[in-house]
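Hello Y.,

Per our agreement to keep a running log of every chain we model this quarter, I'm adding this entry. I've kept the format consistent with earlier entries: sequence first, then predicted structure.
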Amino acid sequence: MTNTEFWLSYHLASRVHLPPTTQLVELEFHNQKLQDLEDVLDHVFRQGYVEAKYRPVTWFERKDGHKIKGSQLIDVLLKEGVGRSPETALRLVVEDLANTFWFTYVYLHGSKTVVTQRVKLNELPAKCDRLAHITNHLFQQGFLAAKLRPVVHWQKACGVRVEEHACVRDILSAGEGTCEEKPLRLIIDAPPACEAGCHCHHHRVL
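Predicted structure for the entry above:
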């Protein structure tokens, strides 16, 4: 390991359940030396390793989660032992996927009350690639009675149906479910069944 090499690891929100990928960055590139972390970021985006649209939501942080300013000199980090090997790689965090998914419960019969709920994707116990994973989570947590599983489906705000196999990342990228003002709609073709022991739309994940 020399002072012309620096290790970083990619931590993408869309791959939170997968091991991070490490990369060796050559600090001397095209007769120019990368001096600080901002230079490294410029290099990463210029080479297309990360899509340019994610530049506003990309930063470096230490293993303890402490963010590091882009003006931090690489030589100083190397002297501290950071970035000298794959094991000490600096974390490059890319929030390429929102960590939250917003939706509303919409009953077609009975209740006119619309309740909005947030699911924290990065806190789910298993991967959450497909909309079906979120649906399963809601029923597993008891937010909806199991007997309603055959009569629920998803819709966009415009009324277009969204299939269970739809990719959560694609839905969020399209602007659906990104915030409380733009929730996806969980359509329930049954009246609310607030029976004893029922855990329905009155419960929310905060």
